[in-house]
Design brief:
By secondary structure, the chain is of the alpha+beta class. It contains three helices and five strands, in the order E-E-H-H-E-E-E-H. The protein has a single domain, classed as 3-Layer(aba) Sandwich (Aminopeptidase). A five-stranded antiparallel β-sheet has the order 1-2-3-4-5, sandwiched between helices.
Length: 129
């Protein structure tokens, strides 16, 4: 279902498939911040754990793990994950994390969700997200 490098673009953001090079100290700091991880299952992560997580998600053809990036500056501000996708029931889940606190309250999370939800209903023909 998902192969290679996926990229989605909106007015202010682009979403692209994460790779091991994205597992950096900034990404790690988000997951180790109690304010950011308050509603996440993950409460702590190392860079190596992030590398393993990204590789594991990218090995599933029913999961899409994307980074959320500012279009103008290429600044990495968060992640959004689709999946696993149930192609029989035509449904999936989405999880979004804005790790960069300076990006909070500016509508970036909603914009990222809108990009991916549009892809879910239009391209993937899902019926429930």
């Amino acid at each position: 279902m998902f192969k290679g490098k996926d990229k989605f673009i909106s007015d202010r953001l682009y979403l692209r498939t994460l790779d091991a090079n994205d597992a950096n100290e900034v990404y790690c700091s988000w997951l180790n911040d109690p304010e950011v991880n308050k509603f996440l299952a993950t409460k702590h992560a190392t860079t190596q754990e992030l590398v393993d997580y990204i590789k594991e998600k990218n090995n599933h053809d029913d999961i899409l793990l994307l980074g959320i990036f500012m279009k103008e500056s290429n600044k990495f501000i968060g992640t959004i994950k689709l999946g696993p996708v149930d192609s029989i029931l035509k449904k999936s889940n989405i999880a979004v994390m804005l790790g960069d606190k300076s990006s909070w309250g500016k509508g970036f999370g909603l914009e990222a969700l809108n990009i991916l939800i549009g892809h879910c209903f239009i391209r993937l023909k899902l019926e429930e997200v």
